[in-house]
Specification:
By secondary structure, this protein is mainly β. It has two domains: about 120 residues, Elongation Factor Tu (Ef-tu), domain 3 (Beta Barrel), CATH 2.40.30.200; about 100 residues, Sandwich (Jelly Rolls), CATH 2.60.120. It is about 5% helix and about 55% strand. Strand 15 and strand 16 form a beta hairpin.
């Protein structure tokens, strides 16, 4: 029996049975296609990245003590518990997780007030995140991190120290004018901060926010930087 974990809560808590494995979704590349008058074919502009995809599960439920309505209500609350994107995991891809929202387009069939069936649809981001990518690497000397995927990861890097310093991540160089205890560099949202304080004005980027390219990524630093913590966020499609 398959298991779904959404927003930290397992389908097992509701006696849900996943009746069949979900399909493997392949995201669509984010292209803009423009027809050109007088020419055969169309102009294709690659905007970078991938579009969201849908992930669906066929589930069956059995009412405890014949209380179908109460159980259906609990399941509805569970599916609506996420605020924005929430973490979605399942037993079919145990090494990965996704970020998804529940798509509200279904009803639970009522089988004699004792059981029911439902198709659960999630709209998810295109990335399949590796769970190993949520493990921090603490770096105190020049170190090479190996990206095991074929996609460039967008890490969260915590730079610790005091004063000015320079961080090297492969070909990316981040010059920091002043560090007070630490500064977080979030390459996904392209922000530098300390808690709720925005520190974008304290950094200079030679090549944009750092990415961890497939393969080897040498990380080193100088100046007032004493250590670096890297949450790599490895992903694949």
């Amino acid at each position: 029996m398959g298991v779904i974990i959404f927003n930290g809560v397992s389908s097992l808590d509701y006696g849900i049975q996943v009746e069949s494995p979900p399909n493997y979704e392949i995201p669509e590349r984010n292209y803009e296609i423009t027809p050109i008058p007088g020419r055969n074919g169309e102009l294709t502009l690659d905007r970078g990245g991938y579009k969201n995809v849908n992930r669906s599960y066929q589930i069956a439920i059995g009412a405890v003590g014949g209380d179908f309505t109460t159980l259906a209500n609990k399941i509805s609350k569970w599916l609506h518990s996420g605020s924005g994107y929430a973490r979605l995991e399942d037993s079919y891809e145990p090494d990965h997780y996704k970020l998804a929202t529940y798509s509200e387009d279904g009803s639970i069939s009522n089988i004699l007030q004792q059981a029911g069936r439902l198709t659960i649809n999630f709209n998810r981001k295109p990335q399949r995140f590796l769970k190993t990518g949520d493990t921090k690497s603490i770096i105190t000397i020049p170190t090479t991190l190996v990206n095991p995927t074929d996609q460039s990861a967008l890490p969260i890097i915590t730079v610790k120290g005091s004063g000015a310093g320079v961080l090297h991540v492969g070909s990316y160089v981040v010059t920091i004018s002043d560090i007070i205890n630490y500064i977080d560099l979030n390459s996904d949202i392209e922000e530098a901060y300390n808690g709720i304080i925005n520190l974008n004005g304290y950094i200079t980027l030679s090549n944009g926010f750092p990415k961890l390219i497939p393969g080897d990524n040498l990380i080193s630093f100088s100046g007032g930087i004493t250590s670096v913590e890297v949450l790599p966020k490895w992903w694949t499609i």
